[in-house]
Amino acid sequence: MAENKSVITTNEFDRSGRYDAGLKSLAKSLRVAFLLLLIGIIATLIYFVSGAGYFSVEPQEAVIVTRFGRIVGTYTSGGHWFLPYPVNQFIRIKTSQQLLEIDFAAVESSQTAENGSLQPGRDNYIITGDANIVHSSWTIAYRVDNPEKYYLRLLTPQFPVQNGRVMPDDEFTDADGMVGTRGPITFLRNLFRQAVIKVTAESRVNDILYAGQSTYSEAVRREFARLIEESDCGIVIENVGLNRIYPPIKTKAAFEEVTSAINASSAMRNEALAYRVAQENEAVSRSAAIRAEAEAYKQRIIAQLGAQSAYFNKIYEQHILNPGTLTMALYTDMLREVAAAIQGDKFLLDGAGRALWLKINPERRRSSSDSGNEGSGSTAGQGASQEGR
């Protein structure tokens, strides 16, 4: 009886047309909503099939594709498409050179406090083989050589990636909300600390701080590279740089005095070495000059003796052929040379035994004023001349 009453009431409303406009508007809205929903579903399917599964590999990067957690490929270039998450997951790994700084430094307050001392667990320091304490600062340069090994050995702890990236300094949050560190950076830092502690414990403080720094740094690099190779984690060490190494502040003054003494000694040694080199070079130069002069003199004397020997042999041959003629020619040449060397009057004696009278006191030439006394003077001069003769 109630149903019939309700049907009659609805029919009455339909006949009156009171709700016709509302029903039409509702039907239109439902059609639009259904159309928008259909478009959204289609767009989502298109994105899921095409866009969500596409990725391109950036330079100096590798992309590992996992399907339900299993590696299906590693790509280092180009663009690729796979079914998106949750079927496949794309893990990007940098293959370019990366730097990691590691310090063995103490807390500043413990270094500057008047009675402060270094405390294990709070201050970072390393102990040498002769029981001394040093602090150091290092920079490691490394790169990922094998992305798959790197991912399998270092990037697969629980929750290695949060919000699509590896957390800074390998931070993670466990089920209890505790924050910790693990992963490649933590692994490299701990492995490098192991290498530094081992090499430092086998070295002396003087070698580490002064003359043997390069040897010490190279030993740390070799030990660290050995540990990395043994771990087989897909990482290659390209460089290990020792930025700074220094003693604790309280002992720094004493070490600086040693450094000053070593520098002064080195400067004096260098000065002495430079002086020795200069003297050696000067001695070598003088020796070369003396040797060259002696060699030139030797060659000159040899040339002179050779010329004289040739001349003598030639004269001797002529003497054998014509003794008298050669003797006269030589005698004539000798007289010519002697006469050319004599200044003033020259007198030649033929050696025939004849007397030769020479006027050795020639009269001086007189002027016209002395002409009045010419007779007496001339007579006296002649008498002297005759007497001299």
Could you characterize what this model shows?
This protein has 10 helices and 13 strands. By secondary structure, the chain is of the alpha+beta class. The strands form 5 sheets. Strands 6, 7, 8 and 13 form a 4-stranded antiparallel sheet that branches. Helix 5 crosses helix 7. The N and C termini lie far apart (208 Å). Mean pLDDT is 77; it is low at 1-8 and 372-389.
In summary, what is this structure?
With 389 residues, this protein is an alpha+beta fold. The chain contains ten helices and 13 strands. A hairpin with a 2-residue loop joins strand 2 (61-67) and strand 3.
What is the distance, rounded to the nearest whole angstrom, between the alpha carbons of the first and last residues? Answer: 208 Å
Please give the largest β-sheet.
Answer: 4 strands, antiparallel
Net shape: elongated
Structural class: alpha+beta
Q: What is the string of helix and strand elements?
A: HHEEEEEEHEEHEEEEHHHEHHH
Average residue pLDDT? 77
Taken as a percent bin, the fraction of beta residues is: 15-25%
Low-confidence stretches: 1-8, 372-389
* Tally of helical runs: 10
The helix fraction, in percent, is 40-55%
Q: Which value, in Å, is the CA radius of gyration?
A: 59 Å
- DSSP, total strands: 13
